[in-house]
Amino acid sequence: MEKIYEVILKPKREFRVPVELEVVTPNNFAGKSINEIISQVIYEGNRERKLGELFEVKGEVGESPDNIRIIIENSCNKLWRIGEGMSAGEIIVKGDVGHYLGKHMAGGKITVHGNAGSWVGAEMVDGLIEIHGNAGNHVGARFRGEPQGMGMKGGKIVIHGNAGVQVGLGMIKGAIIIDGDCLEFPGMKMRGGSILIRGNCPGRAGADMTGGKIVICGRVDSILPSFYIESIEKATKVKGEKIEGPFYMFLGDYLASRRAYGRLFVSIPNNPHLKNYAKLLEEGGE
Length: 286
Known about the structure:
Elements: E1 5-11, E2 19-20, H1 26-29, H2 34-38, E3 41-44, E4 47-50, H3 51-54, E5 55-59, E6 68-75, E7 79-80, E8 90-95, E9 106-113, E10 126-131, E11 153-159, E12 173-178, E13 194-197, E14 213-216, E15 228-238, E16 241-252, E17 262-267, H4 276-283
Parallel strand pairs: 1-6, 2-7, 6-8, 8-9, 9-10, 10-11, 11-12, 12-13, 13-14, 14-17
Antiparallel strand pairs: 1-5, 2-3, 3-4, 15-16, 16-17
């Protein structure tokens, strides 16, 4: 078994403003000495710092990012941009983390034993992000103003708690799994991939989506009127995992395109207020 080289970072003090840690990736650490790593330039707010000024750094560094594991101890929500652009190796965060975790990630694994801020895995291409807590808004989303092709293109994001608004905005491929609840607009402008929400969602799921799959196992307050009931399904699958239903299966969003192939699965037992959709199926109407 190939040796794993561990580098451990620990804050020297509490932070009052964001500390941008885009340099903290296995790709950037690979082949460097500890002295070279602590000399890396980072920003605390608008002030330029050296990594070693703000963090204790110890461990052993490998030549390849594939066998480097970075551990951040006593982490807090002021630490932003961890794992940005990484394509290999592993990062483990012990504590909370701030915004832009795994932004543009292309491979490797990030695990957070705490809560995360907004834009987790934004525009990621591949890899795995796992949050053992809650996440903020825009999980796996594309950034505002970016063209449609800039959405999440692959990889997997797992949130074991709750998430905010616009999960998977502009998503193209990959999978996002929310074990808890999420807020409005999951799958907005979605073109492909899968979103599984095991908890509840207030509504507006799949707004402007033209492809992909959204599965909501909990309660949904309402279905957008531009979605049409297609069938009742006993179960469905997300990344090979069988999700037991039964579900109402809707197609849409027909306001976004007349050729909308987005699929929205909504639990029947947890949404008795949507029983009229079963009647529509029986009548063959819309």
